[in-house]
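Reopening this one. Same input as before:
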Amino acid sequence: MNSSFFPYWCILLDPSGLIIETNLPLESWRQNPLSYFLHGTEKIQGEKGSAVLSWQPGKSPISFPGNTGLLASWSLTHGMFWIKMEPMEEDSASLIENSFWKEFLSSDRPFRQIFETNQAIKWILDPDSGDILYANQAASQFYGYSQEELLRMKVTDINTLTKEQIFEEMRLAAFEARQYFRFRHKLKSGELRDMEVYSGPLQFGGKRVLFSILYDVTARVKAISLLEESERKYRSLVESASDSIIITNFETKIFEANRRMAELLEYSKEELQTFTLEDILDKESFADSLIRIPTLEISKPVILNRRFISKSGKIIEAEVNAARIDEFRYMGIVRDVTERNSMTRTLEKSLREKESMLQEIHHRVKNNLQVISSLLGLQYENTEDPNLKRILKECENRVKSMGFVHAELYRSENFAAVDLENYFTTVSSNLIRAYGGLPRVLLQLDLSSLEVSIEKAIPLGLILNELLTNSLKYAFPGDRSGKIQIRIFREEQNIVFSYSDDGIGFKKENHTGSGTIGIQLIEILSRQLKGNSEFTSENGVVFRLRIPGRNPGK
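Same output, byte for byte:
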């Protein structure tokens, strides 16, 4: 076989280790034993020599250095051993001198492949000296050192802990007291990185070493730091809040409660964090919370009324502003409204009592006016003088119109206001009945449902009484038919009362003189209402009154 055609130096050996052929320029090596050009003769003739002579097909090539700075790879072909000799760099040559490297390079191929092909950072350390015995390509790329540089370094050159601390950590890993570590490592550039290290002992070549897998967690550490800072600020805000705050999970377990919440319920914060909502709410409030909590949404608070039970058994009525704050937690801002609710109940009770009393007053006033009206009616029946009878009837109708206001208020739930639609309808109907119905006169009502105070309702009722009485008595003499129109409506901020009939109208002296008390009463009442009135009577009566119309309180 002519080995001169091979592009690398090669040597062919027989099974005894003698050189059969070589393409090396030193022909004098022919027929010399292998130990002639390989240094460390005894070790090679012992370990490596036996390894060569016992080498079988299928095994990986065996590599070791020669005294000429060559890297030799063994293989078996047709019963002969081939040694492939390739030049190597000075650093590589010095690394091969490392006995660990020689053992590692001759180790199982799958083990080496795991080291080299996996992207995780891995290295092997000597726990006694701190030497980096092996580092994979991923470690080289991460730290910025070549593999050769790393293998001349100690772990103390990279780890920022003190030498004593590092060796204590390696001791714990070597004896399997711990497997997980957190360190800060310095890269070649000087940058510091946070590392998670999983390390454990490994027997290699009869020696205990540390096999470590390292992960860069700098980004995660920064994110956690920011999150922790945010959490600290959040907790500070919660703790310093003037309101009571409680935070629970989906199952109502209390995660956190601030100082104000603890004071409100008379527990310590630590005690509250061992509770669920069931321990601090009454049954009805807790049952409703079980229903409402799953429906809460992030940034969409709802107001809930709850009854808390303090450590001493006191019932605390609270208004809770509740919302979900993240995927697992719910926050409630709790405001004690026990005193407010108590005051509200007291006020409501007082109001009911006053309403009842006011209702009774209106009822009694109505009854008293009805008595007066009845007395005037009796007097009317027992009087023969036509003028006196007319006066008594007019007085009776005026008293009745005032009584209708109190009757309306007595039936109403709102004692502050009178519905003019109902009130005017009642006054008009009463007067029509009082004067015998007058079927030839058409009464048209166009009344908006407006509410006014009793101070406005009574004067308006009396004005209507005077106008309608006058029309029924004088506007349609004999068999004259006609129409009476009554309107009330809102015009901007005013209430407008409009009255008209198409009767014979008034004489001028009746409108301006002192002989008609009804006209004088209308003018007095219009001024009392602070209204602007217009009154004409040439072709029937036309009256228009505009008064301020703010809505009364309810």
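So the earlier flakiness isn't reproducible anymore. For the record, The first strand starts at residue 9 and ends at 13.
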